[in-house]
Amino acid sequence: RGEEGQDAGGVSREFFRLLSGQLFVLESRFFEKAVAEEARVLWFDRTSARESVDFWMLGVVLGLAVYNSLPGLDVAFPVCVFKKLRGEPLGLDDLLEVQPTVASSMRALLAW
Q1: What is the pLDDT of residue 16?
Q2: CA distance 21 to 62
Q3: Are the C-beta atoms of 90 and 106 separated by less than 8 Å?
Q4: For 90, left (φ over 0), alpha (ψ -120 to 50), or beta?
């Protein structure tokens, strides 16, 4: 009582770790199950019943964690998500990371 506490980041890290354990999983209905099973990465589900504000909030949580340099978020996003955030162009190799079967089919069509 009456003592000043010092948070060295442990409480924040634990908060974001627990929160990400609830948000960045298939059961949250934010991500496509087929992509997660085939490519082992999380990709946003366009057919999700979730509201657009829910996706916005998901981005806020991720942004806050990155902004505050909190390591330990167990989020398996493909590299193309970060390329898109940086405004870099995407190509067939990026599709290969998210949907390998579709990318292979596209390559076969291009080679034909």
Answers
A1: 82
A2: 12
A3: no
A4: beta
CB 76 within 8 A of CB 37: no
Model confidence at 108, pLDDT cuts 50, 70, 90, reads: very high
Structure tokens at 63: 């942004």
What amino acid is encoded at 104 in this protein? S
Across the chain, mean pLDDT equals 86
Task: Report the C-alpha gap between 70 and 13 in whole angstroms.
Answer: 6
Is-contact 79 63, C-beta < 8 A?
no
Contacts of 54 (CB under 8 A, 6+ apart): 30
Asked whether 19 and 74 are in contact (CB, 8 A), the reply is no
Residue bearing tokens 């509201």:
51
Cα end-to-end distance, the chain, whole Å = 75
Whole-prediction pTM value? 0.72
Query: Nearest CA to 26 among 43, 4, 13, 1?
Result: 43
**Taking 70 as the threshold, does the pLDDT of residue 63 lie above it?**
yes
